[in-house]
Amino acid sequence: MVFSLLWSLYFKEDPLPLLDAMLFSIALGSVLVLFGEKGVEFTPKEGFGIVAFGWLGAAALGGLPYYFGGVFPRYVDCFFEAMSGFTTTGASVLTDIEVVPKGLLFWRDFTHWLGGMGIIVLSLAILPALGVGGMQLFKAEVPGPIPEKLKPRMRETAKLLWGVYFLVSALETLLLYLGGMSFYESLCHTFGTVATGGFSPLNKSIGQYHNLYFEVVIMVFMFIAGANFSLHYRALKGDWKCFFRDEEFKFYTGFVLVGIFLVTLCLYLSGNYKTISSSLRYASFQVISILTTTGYVTADYFWWHPFAKYFLLVLMFIGGCAGSTGGAIKHVRIIVLFKVFKRELYRLIHPEAVISIKLNGKSLSQNVVSSVVNFFMIYMIIFVIASLIIAALGEDIITSIASVAATLGNIGPGLGKVGPAENYAFHTPLAKWVLSFCMAAGRLELYAILLIFLPETYRR
Amino acid sequence: MVFSLLWSLYFKEDPLPLLDAMLFSIALGSVLVLFGEKGVEFTPKEGFGIVAFGWLGAAALGGLPYYFGGVFPRYVDCFFEAMSGFTTTGASVLTDIEVVPKGLLFWRDFTHWLGGMGIIVLSLAILPALGVGGMQLFKAEVPGPIPEKLKPRMRETAKLLWGVYFLVSALETLLLYLGGMSFYESLCHTFGTVATGGFSPLNKSIGQYHNLYFEVVIMVFMFIAGANFSLHYRALKGDWKCFFRDEEFKFYTGFVLVGIFLVTLCLYLSGNYKTISSSLRYASFQVISILTTTGYVTADYFWWHPFAKYFLLVLMFIGGCAGSTGGAIKHVRIIVLFKVFKRELYRLIHPEAVISIKLNGKSLSQNVVSSVVNFFMIYMIIFVIASLIIAALGEDIITSIASVAATLGNIGPGLGKVGPAENYAFHTPLAKWVLSFCMAAGRLELYAILLIFLPETYRR
Q: Cβ-count burial of B241 within 10 angstroms (0-12 exposed, 13-18 middle, 19+ buried)?
């Protein structure tokens, strides 16, 4: 919160909300440091605990500046906004963003950036080691020395990847600043982009600028942030061709291009925009923004043809690449799902054939393949149950579906009452807790958060 | 078509449409008999071919009476209506049912009954042998002698199950007739019930009677039709307790009860109905009708609270039991999915534990478990792609989702523009072909229809 405090002082705003939150956090942290066990090797179970309670704790404390600053009257809103930040979702319960002090808005975007840092390390170092939902795939892909123990490897990997993350962030800030955006807004939008978050200090998000240069820069960096950061690391080390060898990256790029093509075609043919160029401009930004789970908007797609809207809704389930800051199911899993689909058909004709599923030329173990399909299934079960709860609280079907799809997938804006020009403020407190749970579950690849609810977890 | 012709003569209607369709079918059949190969043992691939082309052919010929009778000007509508009949879906493109000659309406309901006969045998004898989507589960469950070869076993099984099907149908017809329904309508509604079809010769379906007795009889028989017919067979042989031993039946019963409870509560609390008794009456009929994939309606649930509507939409994906005439994913697979969910969580805490998934006390092979999860995944992929196509043709998201959910799951009525008081007539011809494909794919457990599109299938 120190950096936010500095902005607060720079803009001559009341520094107390941030100071109070800092003191409270330091106090709580001191208690944990004093009374917690030290130097213990942790088991997978405790690994999940650290991940889940770490994120929940960050959101609980991260909401304090809003609470002390009187941004929201109820704590659940503060918690929601902070959870949305740290999970890089970008779903907001703020109805008027620009009246909030700039120091607090900086904190809001900074939570994205911190969350993004956490996610990269989580998905490339911690979860592969814990064996979650097929993430074992990335065990050998992580840069850094081959480890003997879990902790030293994580530390090494984290440092390298954070270096890349920092570099990408610095580059985007520079490009936005050179294009004429203020340094403050450049920083805020960079945080929202590279973390695929989507918070903006402006009421109308990126659309407020009506500036093609900003849109292109942000599109490029959303695309980068939606790709695997270990590829960026390798590229920076000189291996530029690694992108062309990586099956997930190729699929991701192809998906983006096909998606832009289809939506542009739909917007132009249905007359949503009069020219192909403006169809392309708005289609490409929205497709990249939703697919990478960023959630910045330049167009109110509420008015678009139903195919374009429904297509965006489907994108919310697909998300970014593994090892990116993007959320949802992720491309690598979608690839495996389609390969399983193909294999199932082939098997019916050739029941005796043994066909292994390959990724980047390597055969995947049956264990990993099952993990991926099971992950998809569990994702869908959580989606259905959570959206039924939202509907039970009185929301229409589209709003219920979109609210859950957009929080579970860490996108932010959805459809219906949570559309691009709307926000999550109208939801009941219970709905906000459920959606906060979805954000955390989706962000942490489901399992860490689900284990919290399992009595088995707390047995010695 | 002979029986329909008799009704046609009884009601003194023009018999030519049915006669022409009969002659055309006989002519085509003769060609196939004369030029087809005889006495060849078939491979799994050919088994799928027989199933897929058998159903498509039945729909193609079954649509002829409507075409010759001038019920629809376009053949695609005739094909859609016949496919909807044979797949026991009940989705209709008829805008005014009661103006159609009664002989043709009898044919319309009779296609349900014939389709239901086909489905029971398909799901309990053919598909388990071909190893589709976990249906191997039912290999040993089928009554009849343990077979040496595929064909004799199928024949034996078919006869036994058809006996049960006939008995159940006779009983329902009798009960409806005794309650005061005409013999003609009793037969038609029995066909629609025991096949979990949903066609009715009345414009307002079962709701037109406003008769609690009919509603209760039909509810009971929808419930029976949604359960595994091999259980009914065993019960008729004296083993009444088999229901209480069968995990799927218990889950199915529990699901129905919980569903009725939740929807009744929702309808009452939200004020959709003023009394608990009428909430219960309409909730229970609609829940059983949609869950068993029948699609008869007694209430226009368009006006219901969003939770109730969304809940019905979710039920469309679940469907009946395996070995019933019900469609969609089926309860046995849902049970396996939840057990896999539980095992995945447990595995994360105990990575070394080997936990087998059990059904009715027996461990399932990893192969069967994977088949089930993969089936779910493929079902969802087809659902998403088909509903994107419907949206691309200009329908709103709810209508697109519901049209595909209700045809792929063989329900009939959906939500939005295909709601309970509506029909499928407004869809474009292309949408009707796509939805016909969904009906066939859903009915034949996906694979048989998908294999038609695979070039691999046609290689020697």
A: exposed
A371 chain-B contacts, CB cut-off 8 A? 344
Residues 6+ apart with CB under 8 A from A362: none
Distance CA A334, CA A273 (A): 31
Question: What's the confidence (pLDDT) of residue B456?
Answer: 82
Q: Determine the 3-state secondary structure of B358 from DSSP.
A: strand
Q: Is the pLDDT of residue B312 over 50?
A: yes
Q: Are B116 and B88 in contact (CB under 8 A)?
A: yes
- Calpha distance B260→B312 (Å, rounded): 11
In the DSSP assignment, the letter for residue A135 is G
CA atoms within 13 A on the CB side of A311: 30
pLDDT tens digits for range B412-443: 999 999 999 899 999 999 999 999 999 999 99
Residue type, B178: L
Q: Which residues contact A108 (CB under 8 A, 6 or more apart)?
A: A66, A81, A85, A100, A199, A201
Between B379 and B347, name the one with better pLDDT.
B379
The H-assigned helical ranges of B270-330 are 276-291, 306-318
Closest-CA residue of B relative to A313 is: B397
Inter-axis angle of helices A306-318 and B397-408, nearest 10:
70
| Shortest alpha-carbon distance between residue A216 and chain B (Å) | 28
Q: What pLDDT, on the 0 to 100 scale, is given for residue A190? A: 97
Query: Is there a contact between B134 and B368 (Cβ–Cβ < 8 Å)?
Result: yes
| A388–B454 C-beta distance less than 8 A | no
Single-letter amino acid, residue A147: P
Closest CA to A59 of A31, A85, A92: A85
DSSP line for A329-395: S-HHHHHHHHHHHHHHHHHHHSTT-----EETTEEPPHHHHHHHHHHHHHHHHHHHHHHHHHHHTT-
Q: Which residues of A413-431 are buried (b: 16+ CB within 10 A; e: fewer)?
A: bbbbbbbbebbbeebeeeb
pLDDT at B153: 67
Total residue length of chain B:
460
Give the tokens for residue B63.
């649509």
pLDDT band per the 50, 70, 90 thresholds, residue B142 = very low
pLDDT < 50 positions in chain A: 140-150
Please tell me the predicted confidence (pLDDT) of residue B129: 74
Taking residues B91-103, report their average pLDDT.
95
CA-nearest residue of chain A to B314?
A384
HSE at residue B340, side-chain half, CA atoms within 13 A, is 30
Residues near B381 by Cβ (< 8 Å), separated by ≥ 6?
Answer: A337, A338, A341
By the 10 Å C-beta count (0-12 exposed, 13-18 middle, 19+ buried), B153 is classed as middle
**A88-92, A211-215, B154-158, B254-258: least confident range:** B154-158
Which is more confident, B136 or A379? A379
Structure tokens at B314: 């979710």
* A210 to chain B, closest Cα gap in Å: 29
Q: Which residue of A has its CA nearest to B399?
A: A306
Q: Cβ separation of B307 and A388 shorter than 8 Å?
A: yes
Listed residue (A245, A229, A227) closest to A237, CA to CA: A229
Q: Do A348 and B447 touch (CB under 8 A)?
A: yes
Confidence band of B139 (pLDDT split at 50, 70, 90): low
Nearest to B310 among A305, A344, A400 (CB): A400
Residue B140 has pLDDT above 70, yes or no: no
Q: Which amino acid is at A53?
A: F
Residues 6+ positions from A363 with CB-CB distance below 8 Å = A356, A357
Q: Specify the higher pLDDT residue, B333 or B160.
A: B333
Q: Are B133 and B34 in contact (CB under 8 A)?
A: no
Residue with tokens 């629809």: B72
Most A-contacting residue of B310, B333, B373 (CB-CB within 10 A), to test interface: B310
